[in-house]
Amino acid sequence: MKDVKFYIPAITIMCVYLFIVMFSGVNLDTLTIFLVVDIFLLFFSSFLLDRKKWWGCLLGMIMGSRYVYIGMIPKQQLFIINIELFIGVIIVFIYLVFGLIVYIKPNRVNN
User: Residues 25, 40: contact at Cβ < 8 Å?
Assistant: First the structure.
């Protein structure tokens, strides 16, 4: 764990998931597989980025693009802002930036 910054989105999203499951009364049986897959994708992506593998960002972007897809499905909602779409775009952007950081950093020539 050399670079902690790659683990910050995974830990934050895991804490949000735990908060939602504990305090919202959501049926855990229906969400269990999605929660486990999302948390696994994010932590494995963070692990690969920490090992300087730029393609590790693709796993985080897959998870974020799933949220974008869920947000684009038309449904009856109470909020004006579609929160899944917004969170998905942020996650995709964060992991795109992380991938660029890992890709560009070792390829620089130090003068």
Answer: no
Q: What is the CB-side half-sphere exposure of residue 6 using CA atoms within 13 A? A: 27
pLDDT for 98 equals 92
CA nearest 47: which of 38, 56, 39, 55?
A: 56
- Residue 111 pLDDT level (bands cut at 50, 70, 90): very low
Cβ(54)–Cβ(103) under 8 Å?
yes
**Which tokens hold the place of 56?**
């590790």
Rounded to whole angstroms, the Cα distance separating 51 from 56 reads 9
The two three-digit tokens of residue 13, written as one number: 């999203």
The answer, yes or no, to whether residue 63 has pLDDT greater than 70, is yes
What is the SS3 assignment for 62? helix
What are the residue boundaries of the structural domains of the chain, listed by start? Answer: 4-107
Tens of pLDDT, residue by residue over 6-27, are 899 889 988 888 887 777 776 6
